Amino acid sequence: MTPVTPDTFSLDVNALEGMKRRAREAPNDNAPEVARQFEAMFLQMAIQRMRDATPKDGLFDSDQTRMVQSMYDGQMAQALANPGMGLAKALLAQMQRGGGAGPDDAADVAFTPLSQPSQVFGGSSGATGAPRRLAAGGLIDAIRASVAATDSQKAGSTGDWGEDTPAHVASFLDKMGDAARAVAEASGLPLRLILGQAALESGWGQREIRTADGRTSHNVFGIKATGGWSGDVANVMTTEYVNGAPAKMTQPFRAYDSYEHALSDYARLITQSDRYRDVVNARDENDAARRIQAAGYATDPAYADKLIKVMRLLPV
User: Is the pTM of this model over 0.90?
Assistant: First the structure.
């Protein structure tokens, strides 16, 4: 038996196929390996869910960093699975109680993602209502199906953005693209500028400003509640640059009832305020980014450079 080690990635599909082949040859000998791999997969999926829930940095969130992070998470999951948290032992005990069920007993364990755990860990089989056994091969199939489901979720929707568009960019465009296009056509502002600022200010929609009760403010542009604003307000801690040095302070931000409202208010601010008059007359979106910084949209001295880098990632 080839043991699972920290050098084996927990979601390696080729490794799963090899494991299933060995389980077919010697199911009892390979049951501990299958159980450990299942626990490692479970732990990695839990780590991935925590990563997904963590706000991303718009500048340092790239395909390369995500790939390295995924590799690291896979190795960490393998390390945590040895000795593990007890899940592998419980699975192994259940497989042994099942009498060494063969690896290809399709009736024993359905080929299903882990989103339907009842089909893997229990329930009845067929009209007889007999308890479902936990087969090593079926458990491997469950792991493989879960890998495919996870990969599909990671890919996200590409919409009309093209297959090469990173998943987080495609997801952001799916949410903002149509409304941003309508606002760009109505205001005359470059579409890349509108989407680029929304992406930069909100971390591709992952760091949206929230109200005191946890609701999103839909304020993806970081527009403060000044200039006679009479709507809802979200007071949050933010970083401002004072004399070129970053400083943390609480600031009031506008809260909208929809992304469409936020996009429209941003366009109104840029096109109707004397402060941003030069932005409307910019040669292109890059020139507009420079003029927006010059007008004082943000206190970050590198704001225009960051905005231009974000706009280059947009397939619009």
Answer: no
